[in-house]
Amino acid sequence: MIPFNVPPFTGNEIRYIEEAIQQGKISGDGIFTRRCSTWMEEKFDACRILLTTSGTAALDMALLMCGLKPGDEVILPSYTFSSTANAAVLAGARLVFVDIRPDTMNIDEGLIEAAITDKTKAIIVVHYAGVACEMDTIMSIARMHGLKVIEDAAQGVMSQYKGRYLGTIGDFGCYSFHETKNYSMGEGGALVINDPEYIERAEILREKGTNRSKFFRGQVDKYTWVDFGDSYLPSELNAAYLWAQLENAKGIYEDRMQSWKLYYDRLTDMYEQGYIELAQIPDTCIQNAHMFYLKVKDLKERTGMLAYLNKNDILAVFHYVPLHSAPAGLKFGRFNGDDRYTTSESERLVRLPLYYGLETKNIEYITDTVKRFYFRR
């Protein structure tokens, strides 16, 4: 069976974990946490980046810092993982779902303004598959209406929009380093803070409501509980694992891009003949090859394709069931406007295996099997 995903491993992870243990500092904010944060801040030209226990935790922190109150509304796409919505619910907001664009599967920026009410306080954009949303338009709308913008860039580490790295454009950016992502620490994430006024509040929130970060910088002689907080600080062992991959970030990126391009080249004929649709990458975006997906005719055809691939030892999957149709979505929010694309496009999408180290022969076998699914008939 060709797996859908294999967690990335570059070779130095175990050595760095051993180093962290030998230093007697495994609880977090040690040398490897600092290396990872500094590397990303310099690479992405970010104001401040804090490692977190997960991408979900980063989203939670971002929404909590928006100062939402019960009854406030947050606009977001329905085509996303539950973490995106949960963060807004945790902060006390009502969800307002907006339709997506079929070309990128991202929120339709042209529909956002119509969803804004006097209760709207924030917009969450999701850069699906590491392909950027139309951020210039979204930021313009947000500034016009005094709204915060949170970038759910869980899939977008190393992707760019008009020369700027995803996560560094809105008020806050959120990365994921889950084992399914391009760069992993098992479970982990990062919060990108693009306004320096929020740095101290984020540090306090991340460190259980204490000013512990200021204490370690020598800014206070003791630390204490100063505000509401939670435990969002990841283990130094996880950071050590991530550091081995950030050191090899370019190699991982190039390996995944090579696989993505091979998929695209080998399936272009199927696209040109009208059997499938392939992802569209806008000229404004440099993507990170987080995933390779194709679209089939409808739900029935997708069910058949997934079964056929599985029968031929290929684990392919589909992605989200739209949140607005889920029990929690009905409870915590509403869909604004028409569901023209969210449900129908979600039912057509198939994700093929893509991971660091995926062999060329396996991509050739997978693409040949996709073709046999159609031509066997």
Can you describe this structure?
- It is a single chain.
- By secondary structure, the protein is α/β, with parallel strands linked by helices.
- Helix 2 packs across helix 9 and helix 10 (249-272) runs parallel beside helix 14 (360-375).
- It has helices at 13-22, 31-44, 55-64, 82-90, 112-115, 135-145, 199-206, 212-216, 236-246, 249-272, 299-311, 327-332, 342-346, 360-375; strands spanning 48-52, 73-77, 94-98, 120-126, 148-152, 160-161, 164-165, 172-176, 189-193, 277-278, 285-286, 292-295, 333-335, 349-352.
- It contains 14 helices and 14 strands.
- It folds into 2 domains: 13-246, Aspartate Aminotransferase, domain 2 (3-Layer(aba) Sandwich), CATH 3.40.640; 249-375, Aspartate Aminotransferase, domain 1 (Alpha-Beta Complex), CATH 3.90.1150.
- The chain is globular, with a radius of gyration of 21 Å.
- The model has no long low-confidence stretch (mean pLDDT 96).
- The relative contact order is 0.17.
- Strands 1-9-8-5-4-2-3-13 form an 8-stranded mixed beta sheet, sandwiched between helices. It has a 3-stranded antiparallel beta sheet with strand order 7-6-11, with no helix packed on it. A 3-stranded antiparallel beta sheet has the order 10-12-14, covered by helices on one side.
- Strand 6 and strand 7 (164-165) form a beta hairpin.
- It starts with 12 loop residues before the first helix and ends with a helix.
Q: Judging from the principal axes of the Cα atoms, what is the shape? A: globular
CATH architectural name of the largest domain? 3-Layer(aba) Sandwich
> Low-confidence segments, ≥5 residues, pLDDT <50?
none
CATH homologous superfamily annotation of the largest domain: Type I PLP-dependent aspartate aminotransferase-like (Major domain)
| End-to-end Cα distance | 24 Å
Question: Based on helices, strands and strand pairing, what is the structural class?
Answer: alpha/beta
Elements, N to C (H/E): HHEHEHEHEHEEEEEHHHHEEEHHEHEH
